[in-house]
Protein 1
Amino acid sequence: MQDIQRGRNFMKADFGRRSNGPSDQQRGVPYPPLQKEAGDGEILALPSVDQEVISRSDFFTVVEERQSRRKYSDSPLSLAELSFLLYCTQGVKQEIRRGYATKRTVPSAGARHPFETYLAVNHVESLKSGLYRYLPLSHQLLSLGAVDDLPHRLTEANLGQRFVGDAACVFIWSCIPYRAEWRYGSHAHKNMLLDAGHICQNLYLAVEAISAGTCAIGAYDQELMDELLALDGEDEFVVYLAPVGKP
Ligand SMILES: Cc1cc2nc3c(=O)[nH]c(=O)nc-3n(C[C@H](O)[C@H](O)[C@H](O)COP(=O)(O)O)c2cc1C
């Protein structure tokens, strides 16, 4: 019962209560980076975003036809399609005051955008199978290397949901909570999960527009997913994911 109560309280807005003291932003602590450092991996260019990949452009049809799709063929996604999907979900339209905030294709409370997008790639034209991280500020991909038996690892980490392991590509969103905590302190957490919902909804619509399929995934093993991406599970951890494939 205590767990239920804690869960319900987490869903409520608590901005009226300023019991958690000033946030780091209010205390004058410099703002955190907008994106995780690229590190040593190979950086790959993505094609510029091109609306040519859209096969269904009628907005009402896209909204009405949107559904969770769990059956994918072996057909690969093209790099142009991947570029479009990444832009629709986390693409940067404007950087505000060099490194302070970004305006993107999705909304985020306080424009904090506290997420990183990882890709587990099985079948994407001209990409080797393996893990990648999107670099939204430059619209590039960072290669994180191959993983032995990636489809099996994905299926296992998603509680046996085989369509996740079989997908052409899996979008995996991690959260770096401090990006929002810096401004909102303990009020940040509810909003970060709301933010994640917007990202996945844009993926649903963008995927539908290119006649592919996706399915939001909330049922996964936290430790296995964090381990797959080598995340510490404290300052960065997986919050949501979605496989994408051609029907
Ligand atoms: C937050 C969230 C988590 C979900 N997690 C899963 C999941 O782990 N596995 C799955 O098969 N579907 C999952 N779904 C998809 C829902 O089952 C699906 O949206 C629902 O059945 C309605 O179907 P529709 O999306 O086709 O309208 C999830 C959806 C949401 C929004």
Protein 2
Amino acid sequence: MNRIAMHRSMVALLVSTSIGLAACSSTTASDGAPTADSPDLSVAANFYPVEWLVKEIGGDAISVTGLTPLGEEPHDLILNAQTREVIESSNVVFYLGSGFQPDVEKALAQRSQGPEAVDLLKAPGVVLLDAPADLGKESLAGNKDPHVWLDPTLMQAMAKEIAAVLSKAAPSQSGEFEKNRDALLASLGALDDELQGAIRGCLTNTIVTSHAAFNYLAQRYGLIQLAITGISPDDQPDPATLQQIAADAKAAGVTTVFFEEQLPRELSETVAMEIGARIDLLSALEFDPEEFIGPGQSYLTVMSDNGKRIAAGLQCA
Ligand SMILES: [Zn+2]
């Protein structure tokens, strides 16, 4: 928690610096649209996976600012004055709706003018799963599961939507956006092939996860998720539920319990100890992996690593 608080203050500094830079370098018209002299778009993205997609597609033609401060839990994010200013001063805001970050949705609904707001959960080809019924009911409007980014094929659907929106907002750059989109679709397709190849012939198909982030990944690769906490990591189980999870995990032949890089490990360790399993990292990619896993890490490398850890943990062929 101390680490998160420390990062929060660093982020405030970074955000204010980037606002300063944006103010110096861009000449935007009073309605927020780019002028003929400045084709560069300023784009806001709600958290790491969306930010990564937008940067990959936008390249140098756009400036991207994340709304979730470094190290801060993205679920139920509360916007501060600086991130509200980022929303106001952006041309386009990409976000995930369905109650993932209600404060972001509220800020976008309240604006009288300003950025085009794009809910990527409504992108063509993104089919939402219901949130698990047992946990997290209160935190989700409509009870839909927002964790679509953990299925590379749904990342492809969102990438197509982002490229279409950016091309419409800056038509002179559309060739660049489409080229970047195609390269990204190929990388995500290769990742999907790799995961399909890694996660097959497993001794168990149950992944015990720290929070309920992996339903889309489980659906894509034929797995069953047994989550220790809810859709939001704040939805904690009571001792009886924890006992039940351990019993279910044991019955499913689980030998590895997964934890996440930025969440407390205690619950994963408790379940693992109860059933004599080991623990291993499985990233939900809700935090910038360059900051929290290591330099050079990105969505692609961490998902590839997730596939290897699942294959090892489930003893796949
Ligand atoms: Zn989550």
